[in-house]
Amino acid sequence: MTNKNLAPASLAAQAMGWVDPVTKAVVPPIHMASTYLRDEDNGYRSGRIYARADNPTFDQAEATLSALEGGAGALIFSSGMSAATACFLALAPGDHVVVPKVMYWSLRNWLATFATQWGLKVEFVDADRTDAIAAAVKPGATKLVWIETPANPTWCVTDIAAAADIAHKAGALLAVDSTVATPVLTRPIEHGADIVMHSATKYLNGHSDLIAGALVTARTDEHWTKLRMIRAQLGTILGQTEAWLLMRGMRTLYPRVDWACRSAQKMAERFAAHPMIEEVLYPGLSSFTGHAVSKKQMAGGFGGMLSVRIKGGERAAIATAARVELWKRATSLGGVESLIEHRASIEGPGTPCPTDLLRLSVGCEDGNDLYEDLDQALKRAHNA
Ligand SMILES: *Cc1c(COP(=O)(O)O)cnc(C)c1O
Description:
By secondary structure, the protein is of the alpha/beta class. The chain is built from 14 helices and 12 strands. The longest helix is centred in the C-terminal third of the chain and has 20 residues, at 253-272. The relative contact order is 0.12.
């Protein structure tokens, strides 16, 4: 059977079916070398010179991720932030970019500070409204439209196909932060995206034990070469051991995401009827604003991330988070262990995040255990 006929879940589970030709090992090795032997005639026919550009340990993870996303090429980075910022650094000072108001907080801060000081003209829009994106793009001047869907921490949804259409008509590229959707649920390139970005720290690795990022592109063109060059020049490469761990984590991506989605969907429905909860934010609820668009561009589930707004405001939300026993009070998402976070506290002043909001990353524990733990915390906080 060729890889071509296999479903993404099969490709992921077997890391593209790699077997070492010499030892027959079914798991690739970690290449520790930082430098490579030059040929006697002064050439570098192996294609490898120095490990700040790349490392053979990356190959399997990059090839697998590219296949899962239906892309032409993938680049893994030292973090999600270094992958995301490379997309903006590949532009030139003076270029106009359209980005969401609701998005991953650290990247939003970088865009408002470093990127703006460096000379990018950064325009923040309500990206869940495609008419707002259309009104913001300036044909010729806009070089990149950036979206995140579902977007942290309220999970508002952007129509990828509509955003791609708007971007392309203006002569811009569309990049999608697909960290939360993962290729299991959404393949943005199939909807017209040019670049897919992941914080591989989250679902791709899935075990909360490394920091990594990735870009997948629809084409391995000049732009891709530039992204690769930025990674080599800034040295934002992933360590080889982390690259190996990332590949190992990706092998179980499909069952982990599938489990988390089913658990999150049930939990969202149950919490929607909970007397101490004001509102549940989850793309899988039919009452959710972005539900119809999510149905169109997410297949097999609506993700493992949801947020709950607690009756009684900020104090009640923090008091609830203080009383969980099974959930772990921590930032980050997409690991096998479930996390709960009072998101406004970590984002700080200026955040658009409601102060009564608890962000939930549903992991691989039993869904009923998770529900009951948060339920007891809500009740104890309410009675305190
Ligand atoms: C965590 C995260 C990032 C940043 O990734 P790091 O790996 O922490 O650098 C970007 N986007 C989203 C949606 C994230 O959750």
